Structure formats: C-alpha cells, structure tokens
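User: tokens in, sequence out, please.
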C-alpha cells in the first residue's frame, strides 16, 4: 500500500541532497548572494513539482538516478519564480514558506540576482546530466523553458496576473492566468518524468491532461486557502490576494462553488489516469493531497 508521506519525505530529502551538490557553497564569494540562494531553496517547501517528476518517471519505469537532476532543476525554476514574485515591484510579500522573503532578508537587488542564478543554474543542471542522452537533455530544456517563459508559460501568467489586479475579469481569463502562472510548470514536471520514462505518445497525452487538471486544482485550492486559513497555517501572508484586488475563484464564484470546482478538477485528474495502463497509485495520492491540503 502506498505511503504518500514516506514518498514525499524521500523526495524532499533526495532533491535537497541533489540541490546541495549542484549549488555553490553558501560560503563561496560573493557570500551574500549564495546565502540568499540557500535561504530560499532550503526554506522547507513542499517540493510538489519535483515529486511529480519522480512519481511520473517511476510510473513509466525510470530509475531515480535519471530523474533527480531534472526534479532539482524544476525546483530551482519554481523557487526563483517565488523570489521574484515576492518582490515589492510584483506581489510585495514579506513572508514565504514560514519565514522572511529573500528580499526582506538580503535586499531587493540580491534577491533579483539570486533568482537569476537559480534560473540559469536550472538549465545547466539538465545540460550537464550525464545520465541522460544529449537529445533527451535538449528536449527537456526546451520543454521547461517553454513552461517557464512565454508566450504561454509561467512568466506570461505572472504578467497577466499583475495586469488583472483591480479590474473585473471573466472566469475564462482567470483560468488562463492560472494555467500559465501555476499550471505550465506543473505540466512540465509531470511530462518531464514521463519523457524520461519513455512513455508513448498516447501515455504522454494522458499525463498532460492529468497535469493540467492537477495544476488548476493546485491554484483553486491555493485561492481557497488564502481566504480560509490564517497566516500561521499558510506560511505566507493570508488575505494578500484580496488586499491586492487580485481576481480569484472565491472572489468570482464564491467559496462553495470554488470547492465544487476543486472536486470536479480532482475527478478530472484521476479520470485522466485511467488511460495509463500502469500503476498510478502515487499520482492519485498526489491528487488527493492537493485537493485536501491545508497550506
């Protein structure tokens, strides 16, 4: 029987060890910059995206050795995006993962540079992965770059989110923002694992459908938590979306309708896995975890 907690504990430990090997030492000059990178990466994040890489890769028979550097690379991309999102020029937040944001502790300029390093190091991490052949490395770099950038990736989603502050938008517009800002990297995480595991085209299509639903579910539950949980429980500032006049599912649909949408997305994600004739127990467990999370 699946012990999801044990799997996530393993993932967090293994990815942290991989990151520790990849990163410059915090004692290396310029120490302030390297300390800021370590501060941001080892702040106790949930490591959902790396877990998806490993869970999906294992589903298709990939060994952990071939998955860990890609999982670490995606965590580098994710953490850089959080550091930049928290900046005063964007979401202007003081708390992330239960402690001071990078710019509050190290200054705005250093936070920007720390994000820059993490982004570039992510692609170097995959480029240098000798456990994968060169064609596969190039394919993964292209996939993750698309998910992180523009025109339909994480950076585009952040710009759309900023542009939507303080104005009325439709549900379709909100879904588009979330599918880019949050969903694109989640889809890339799951797809990366499947590609490393040599999934067929049909299996990849099912994985992408699963991950799209999971990515939107993650954001829908995030919107719910922002209005239903206190700061201490979240590890980040509660009520920030409302204060910034951001469009969210609760603000557009109400809390109860948002909860129903979350249930529907969880069903869609699980249904998508039915097209994969493999053991998808861990992936289903991740759906349940995201649907019921409290932080």
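Assistant: Sequence out:
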């Amino acid at each position: 029987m699946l012990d999801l907690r044990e799997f996530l504990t393993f993932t967090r430990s293994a990815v942290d060890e991989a990151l520790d090997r990849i990163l410059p030492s915090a004692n290396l000059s310029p120490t302030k910059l390297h300390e800021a990178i370590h501060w941001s990466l080892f702040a106790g994040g949930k490591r959902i995206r790396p877990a998806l890489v490993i869970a999906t890769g294992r589903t298709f028979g990939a060994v952990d050795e071939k998955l860990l550097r890609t999982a670490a690379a995606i965590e580098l991309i994710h953490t850089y995006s959080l550091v930049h999102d928290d900046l005063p020029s964007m979401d202007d937040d003081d708390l992330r993962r239960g402690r001071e944001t990078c710019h509050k502790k190290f200054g705005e300029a250093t936070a920007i540079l720390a994000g820059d390093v993490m982004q570039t190091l992510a692609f170097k991490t995959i480029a240098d992965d000798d456990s994968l052949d060169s064609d596969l490395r190039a394919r993964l770099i292209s996939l993750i770059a698309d998910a992180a950038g523009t025109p339909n990736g994480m950076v585009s989603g952040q710009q759309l989110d900023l542009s939507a502050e303080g104005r009325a938008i439709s549900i379709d517009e909100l879904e588009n923002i979330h599918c880019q800002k949050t969903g694109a990297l989640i889809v890339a995480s799951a797809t990366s694992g499947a590609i490393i595991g040599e999934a067929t085209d049909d299996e990849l299509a099912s994985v992408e459908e699963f991950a799209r639903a999971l990515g939107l579910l993650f954001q829908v539950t995030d919107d719910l938590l922002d209005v239903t949980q206190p700061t201490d429980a979240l590890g980040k500032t509660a009520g920030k979306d409302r204060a910034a006049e951001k469009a969210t599912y609760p603000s557009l649909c109400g809390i109860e309708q948002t909860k129903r949408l979350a249930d529907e997305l969880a069903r869609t994600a699980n249904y998508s896995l039915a097209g994969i004739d493999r053991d998808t127990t861990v992936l289903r467990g991740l759906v349940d975890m995201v649907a019921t999370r409290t932080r």
